[in-house]
Write a structure and sequence with these properties.
231 residues, alpha/beta, Rossmann fold, six-stranded mixed sheet, 9 helices
Length: 231
């Protein structure tokens, strides 16, 4: 099994409070993994460490065999849960920006996705609704030929129609040479995408496994399991 991402005894503390507490995970190549937990459980901290934006307090992260750094940033496409484009940009400027910034950016794919998402290249980034902004950010992230995609709340605050578009885009643009980490509160909408799930509470993994096996063993959907674990 080709392990793309692993963490070993990963810990992160802020001002004495543990945001992550001895997290050990192994993610093989070609998997879509749901990282599920309530607000403040440590999901975003974990993603930021993997993306190389935060340093762990202790423990180790390996992506494609390397610790987070210049190389791993070149193979990780990270969709943060906060805006990251400049206010002066139009949608077409953001495409240029990504093309100049990332060697693995596939401009042709980006234009196809914009069309699929019904986004107008001449729209100003500041004029976009939350749903449209989400669709643009996802378009930019998925247009990279990355080995690891990290999507932090890709469905946050978007209407059901937009949600379907976003899910379709994720499904159509996923390939078996890469893996994808997705955090979400909307487990019911997205659980059909997951090969594996990690439930995280208070910075620790409380349950993990193959999504289908968990469904069969517990005789529950992942959403029902989520509600049970975090009630």
């Amino acid at each position: 099994m080709d392990i793309l991402l692993s963490t070993e005894n990963l810990t992160k503390s802020y001002l004495g409070k543990k945001a992550l507490n001895v997290v050990n995970i192994e993610i093989p190549k070609g998997k879509v993994v749901g990282i599920l937990g309530p607000n403040g459980s440590g999901k975003t901290t974990l993603l930021k460490i993997i993306a190389g934006l935060l340093k762990p307090s202790s423990g180790k992260v390996l992506i494609d065999g390397k610790e987070p750094g210049v190389y791993t940033k070149s193979i990780v496409a990270y969709l943060p849960d906060t805006p990251f484009l400049y206010k002066w940009m139009k949608i077409k400027d953001s495409i240029d920006f990504y093309r100049d910034f990332y060697k693995d950016f596939d401009e042709e794919k980006a234009w196809e996705l914009l069309k699929f998402m019904n986004l107008d290249p001449d729209s100003k980034v500041t004029s976009l609704s939350k749903g449209m902004a989400e669709k643009l950010n996802l378009t930019l992230t998925l247009s990279r030929k990355a080995k690891l995609y990290i999507l932090d709340e890709p469905l946050g605050g978007v209407d059901p129609t937009t949600r379907e578009k976003i899910l379709d885009a994720i499904i159509q643009n996923y390939n078996e040479d890469s893996s994808m980490l997705i955090t979400t509160h909307l487990v019911n909408d997205i659980e059909r995408l997951f090969d594996e799930v990690l439930f995280i509470a208070n910075g620790s993994i409380v349950l993990s496994g193959n999504a289908e096996e968990l469904r069969l063993k517990e005789e529950k959907s992942i959403d029902e399991l989520y509600r049970e674990v975090f009630k």
